[in-house]
Design goal:
mainly alpha, 218 residues, single chain
Length: 218
């Protein structure tokens, strides 16, 4: 009796990488369109969900986790954010609301620069021990906590604080869960706390400059 031919591991990985990248791009496109529709339609307590960098960051990180390699994970992170931007811009355009050049430049830069970092961070958290896993986890949690702080301090008059407290809580819970899942030893735990604090501190500064660009460039 003839045995079924075995598929080489490399072929499995290539198929898995292509599948992960296509799913990331498609889900990103759908999420961007949903974000455009949700703006102005959500209750005040969660209205910031449609304007939050944290929600897009969390989705990009999650979409990169199933990728079979670090490279494909980085590509998933970049394409998911690019897909979100494309979905948002196209949906608003179809609704008669053209997007500003500043918004497209800001999120285009985020897709190119931050997307691969998030995707690689997801892979490091999944596959690498020690410091690299700590860096991967802190990239996500630092953004969630940093933006929540920005929302509470800078956007307090125009947004509901409940959302930002919830996002901060999610960031802390993910930090604790990720640390319990992958990180071992007090040294690595200290590292992930310090890395997360650094990202959370840097985020408001970078985000503020990006927000100014969106407002100033028509």
């Amino acid at each position: 009796m003839a045995l079924a031919p075995t598929v080489p591991t490399g072929a499995h990985r290539r198929r898995g990488a292509i599948r992960a990248v296509l799913i990331a791009a498609a889900c990103g496109l759908a999420a961007g369109g949903a974000t455009a529709v949700a703006q102005g339609a959500l209750p005040p307590q969660v209205a910031s969900l449609a304007n939050s960098s944290g929600s897009w960051t969390l989705l990009a990180f999650a979409l990169a986790l199933p990728a079979p390699t670090a490279f494909s994970g980085a590509v998933c992170g970049a394409l998911s954010l690019a897909g979100m931007l494309a979905g948002y811009v196209l949906t608003d355009l179809l609704r008669g609301y053209p997007s500003s050049t500043g918004l497209m430049v800001f999120w285009g830069a985020a897709a190119v620069l931050a997307g691969p970092v998030l995707g690689l961070g997801a892979q490091w958290l999944r596959r690498r021990p020690g410091t690299r896993a700590a860096l991967g986890l802190s990239a996500l949690c630092g953004v969630l906590i940093g933006e929540a702080g920005y929302g509470l301090l800078v956007l307090a008059e125009s947004t509901h604080p409940l959302y930002w407290w919830g996002q901060a809580g999610i960031g802390v819970l993910l930090l604790a869960a990720g640390a319990a899942w992958k990180l071992r030893g007090p040294g690595v735990i200290v590292q992930v706390v310090l890395f997360t604090a650094a990202v959370a501190t840097a985020f408001p500064v970078l985000y503020l400059h990006g927000s100014v660009l969106v407002l100033l460039v028509p």
